[in-house]
From TrEMBL:
<dbReference type="GO" id="GO:0005576">
    <property type="term" value="C:extracellular region"/>
</dbReference>
<dbReference type="InterPro" id="IPR050314">
    <property type="entry name" value="Glycosyl_Hydrlase_18"/>
</dbReference>
<dbReference type="GO" id="GO:0004568">
    <property type="term" value="F:chitinase activity"/>
</dbReference>
<dbReference type="GO" id="GO:0006032">
    <property type="term" value="P:chitin catabolic process"/>
</dbReference>
<keyword id="KW-0326">Glycosidase</keyword>
<dbReference type="InterPro" id="IPR001223">
    <property type="entry name" value="Glyco_hydro18_cat"/>
</dbReference>
<dbReference type="InterPro" id="IPR017853">
    <property type="entry name" value="GH"/>
</dbReference>
<keyword id="KW-0378">Hydrolase</keyword>
<dbReference type="InterPro" id="IPR011583">
    <property type="entry name" value="Chitinase_II/V-like_cat"/>
</dbReference>
<dbReference type="InterPro" id="IPR001579">
    <property type="entry name" value="Glyco_hydro_18_chit_AS"/>
</dbReference>
<comment type="similarity">
    <text>Belongs to the glycosyl hydrolase 18 family.</text>
</comment>
<dbReference type="Pfam" id="PF00704">
    <property type="entry name" value="Glyco_hydro_18"/>
</dbReference>
<dbReference type="GO" id="GO:0008061">
    <property type="term" value="F:chitin binding"/>
</dbReference>
<protein>
    <submittedName>
        <fullName>Chitotriosidase-1</fullName>
    </submittedName>
</protein>
<dbReference type="GO" id="GO:0005975">
    <property type="term" value="P:carbohydrate metabolic process"/>
</dbReference>
<feature type="domain" description="GH18">
    <location>
        <begin position="1"/>
        <end position="165"/>
    </location>
</feature>
Length: 165
């Protein structure tokens, strides 16, 4: 990528997934050894071809939105297999749900923390039209005037569940 001409130390990652993808496809891939190997090999081929330094998985969200109950374990397996194939040559990250409830459904946090270079905790849209009062959509700390979740509570939940701070 041309970014590296400007800053040779910059790291670029290619990402797959996102909100519009849902869970069904990822659930099927994570549950099948052959599909997992194909995804990992395709990721390596893509990174080599275009000079990316790593890969980000934005599965929104394992075990939810059309996923399966076994997605949590299968996602951990997928991440471990990515790490084994990548070694230290490539960066590996995920974009993750933020709340404690999402963590308990979707993520084997200790396994992910051991195998990922970093976790992008999506701490936006914590508040919105579903609330009964107007407030910040991603407050750093709890606001008792508008009860609910804050960025600090989300990060604390990840750490409490085994993420390496």
């Amino acid at each position: 990528t041309n970014l590296k001409l400007i800053n040779p130390k910059a790291k670029t990652l290619v990402a797959i997934g996102g909100w519009n993808e849902g869970s069904e496809k990822y659930s099927s891939v994570a549950a099948n050894l052959t599909f997992r190997k194909n995804l990992i090999n395709s990721a390596i081929e893509l990174m080599n071809k275009y000079g990316f330094d790593g890969f980000d998985i934005d599965w929104e969200y394992p075990g939810q939105r059309g996923g399966r109950p076994e997605d949590k374990a299968n996602f951990a397996t997928l991440v471990k297999e990515f790490r084994a194939a990548f070694g230290t040559r490539y960066l590996l990250s995920i974009a993750s749900g933020a709340t404690g409830e999402m963590i308990s459904i979707s993520y084997d946090v200790p396994t992910l923390s051991q195998n990922l270079d970093f976790i992008n905790v999506m701490t936006y849209d914590l508040h919105g039209v579903w609330d009964h009062a107007t407030g910040h959509n991603a407050p750093l700390y709890p606001n008792f005037a508008v009860p609910g979740t804050s960025v600090s509570q989300c990060i604390d939940a990840w750490i409490a569940n085994g993420a390496n701070p």
